[in-house]
Amino acid sequence: MLVNRYQQPIFNMIYRMTGSREDAADLAQDAFIRAYEQLYRFHEGKKFFPWLYTIALNHTRNFLRKNKTGRTVAIDDCELHTNSDHASQEEDKICALLDCQRIQGALTRLSWEYREAVILRYREELPMEDVATALSISLSGAKMRVHRGLKKLREILETNDDGNRNAS
Amino acid sequence: METGTPLNPFESGSEREAEALMLIARQIRQTPYLDPPVMLAPSVLKAIRHKRFPIRFRMLRWARSPRSLTFTPLQAAFVASLLILVSAVGVSHLLQSDYRHASQPAAPGGVPITLTLSMPEARSVSVVGTFNAWDQKGFEMRKDQEKGAWTLMLHLPAGHYEYAFVLDGKEVIPDPRAELYSDDGFGNQNAVLIVGNHHERTS
Predict the structure, then answer these.
(1) CATH code of the domain made up of B111-202
(2) Is the ipTM of this complex over 0.90?
(3) CA nearest A15: which of A81, A108, A80, A99?
């Protein structure tokens, strides 16, 4: 069943876009229903996953446009799902937790155009061609957007780090 | 406009920047992957259960779906025979239709043709022509006593004929009322009669 197969990546992608589990669940459900309704438009021979991503992204974008309030990711999300490789050492676990919180917080501050590109490329690890397809832009445009998104993310992280240092 | 920026962050710029970007990319990759809500899939299935695709798509999908046919050799032979029979009947019908159209055969019994000659002084008149091999026997005309005209009804298949009248068994004259004439090769003329499928001609 397509829903079972793709619900996790779609839910997570939307979750990283919105920063809210509840919104992600609702949007993922709507995205799957829309995909089912538009299934007859899907051309056989093309990749299904980028097509599904496109629908989910479009739906999420509309949601973000209507709800421009900023969101932050709760720390317990990172805490609960920290990579188990770090669990053996308490110090590494704390560092990983802080990194997770730091990067997720920065992602939510990134504009959604860059956020979706960076998430698709580095979290979902889609090939650049599929990123371009999912975003409905050219390959060179996708590369540009991913690169720019990463640089902006770095700027956000550095600004946060500077702010934290000054505060302390 | 996003121009003038290197596409690959790891190929250009300072080494420090490249390392920083690689670290960020790795941290993004290590962000937790959440399990979707348990009710996500059931709620989607419940929502789409009663949704139907457009009729156009359903028909297209049906037409594109492969089907398996199971039949015995006997059934196949029967169907093949039936197809051959239907084809043969169809071809035969077409050929007959073409032949009728081309040759214009006469209607059953031939096309009724009435030949008339106004010759009250003649004692007998017969008709000879290509339709009776120029033999007047059996093709004697009857005289209408009131009008003084000689008449004979023929039933001829559609076609092209030449004919003439024989007066009193010795004098041969072409039909004076004919529309066409043809030389007989001996200095005389024959009347020409063209009979179609749906014509009743009176000469």
Answers:
(1) 2.60.40.10
(2) no
(3) A108
The tens digit of pLDDT for each residue in B139-196 reads 999 998 887 889 999 888 888 899 999 999 888 899 998 888 888 877 788 999 988 7
B51 neighbourhood in chain A, CB within 8 Å: 33, 36-37
List pLDDT tens digits, range B95-144: 876 555 444 444 457 888 889 998 888 899 999 999 898 888 889 999 98
Handedness of CA B82, B84, B90, B95 (dihedral sign): negative
Domains (ranges, CATH) in chain A? 111-168 (1.10.10.10)
Whole-model pTM: value is 0.51
Give the residue extent of every domain in chain B.
Answer: 111-202
Cβ pair A11:B37 closer than 8 A? yes
For chain B, which residues lie within 8 Å of any Cβ of chain A, measuring from their own Cβ?
2, 5-9, 17, 20-21, 24-25, 27-37, 40-41, 43-45, 47-48, 51, 53-54, 57, 60-61
| Kind and range of the H or E run holding A45 | none
Are A54 and A136 contacting, i.e. CB atoms less than 8 angstroms apart? Answer: yes
